[in-house]
Design goal:
Length: about 325
């Protein structure tokens, strides 16, 4: 019996200590935030702000002269500022009111308190908008970098450079004039001007596709998100049209539809398929690869041809010998 009473008393002591701890580190501790600011639970936000400013002027440490009074004022000023921080925001005030109404829910009150304290202060919408903007900028400048890299590569290729020079001479752009408005040009200036002309001709005449094509505003994430309802509508419209024409009415595919089916079977996105040469697409059309059976037969032939080439490749034979010996995980003890 005595042991039971001892256990009960210890449990009560533990619960009391938990209750004290749950209040000690939360909000205004054992004091009431409303009483600290001399307001009531029915006070409006404007009344709370007014009361805080009045008390802040009274208890600001600079308003007191002696060190003892400054120390006491500083402690009071911190309590006033803390109470104001809790009551000025609607969310934290609601959490505090809930704790006053439900003081026995210790752990839930802890959760509500720290949830508000650790929540991000910046609006999530602003964070999302800034993130999308940064991605859009990086995306756009990355696409321009790829495009310029492709143009510079084509300018160094002799066959494209020669064609550009011929075109420039036909248009009377080459050779570059040796005189300028300010006087005679140096060889370096003439060379730079000639390079700029060749680069411009290549840029105007080359059809660069795929990941290195010239970027447009539609490639930017912001634009894609803004126009996503339109894109979705167009896709649904296209899909319904496809079902109606080719599934229900049984019409034959046109050239555009045939190329779409070939791209689908090849598992290429639109940019990758557009980057293919026209003669390759014509070859696919000639072999009627939009028909599933024809494509599977062609794919099987391509795989067999690739295996034959690999089998005849000296580098591939060396790789196979290497893998037979254990590959990257093989162990050796000195030279073989």
């Amino acid at each position: 019996m005595a042991v039971s009473l001892l256990l009960v008393s210890l449990l009560i002591s533990f619960c009391v200590s938990v209750a004290d701890a749950s209040v000690e580190g939360l909000y205004c501790g054992h004091e009431n935030c409303y009483e600290i600011l001399d307001v009531t639970r029915e006070s409006t936000r404007q009344e709370i702000v007014k009361a805080y400013r009045k008390l802040a002027r009274k208890w600001h440490p600079d308003m007191h002269k002696t060190e003892e009074k400054k120390e006491a004022a500083s402690q009071m000023f911190q309590k006033i500022a803390n109470a104001y921080e809790i009551l000025k925001e609607e969310d934290s005030r609601n959490d505090y009111d809930y704790m006053l109404d439900h003081p026995d829910e210790f752990y839930y009150n802890y959760y509500r308190y720290y949830r508000t304290r650790t929540a991000p202060k910046v609006d999530v919408r602003i964070v999302i908008a800034v993130t999308i903007t940064v991605i859009s900028i990086v995306q756009y400048y990355g696409a321009w970098s790829n495009y310029k890299e492709a143009i510079n590569y084509l300018c160094k290729e002799q066959k494209y450079r020669y064609k550009a020079q011929v075109t420039a001479k036909e248009k009377g752009l080459l050779p570059v004039s040796k005189k300028s408005e300010s006087g005679r040009k140096t060889k370096e200036e003439m060379k730079q001007e000639e390079e700029a002309i060749i680069k411009q001709i290549i840029e105007d005449n080359m059809d660069i596709r795929g990941g290195y094509r010239k970027p447009t505003y539609t490639d930017v994430l912001w634009v894609q998100l803004l126009f996503s309802p339109y894109y979705l509508f167009m896709y649904i419209k296209w899909y319904i049209r496809w079902i109606w024409k080719f599934k229900i009415k049984g019409e034959e595919y046109g050239t555009e539809e045939k190329l779409y089916m070939i791209r689908k079977y090849l598992k290429l996105n639109s940019s990758q398929f557009d980057a293919l040469e026209e003669h390759e697409k014509e070859k696919y059309l000639h072999k009627e690869l939009w028909i599933r059976e024809h494509f599977e037969e062609w794919k099987k032939e391509q795989d067999e041809e690739m295996k034959t080439k690999l089998a005849e490749s000296a580098r591939y034979k060396s790789y196979r010998r290497y893998m037979k010996k254990g590959g990257a995980g093989q162990m050796t003890f000195g030279p073989e």
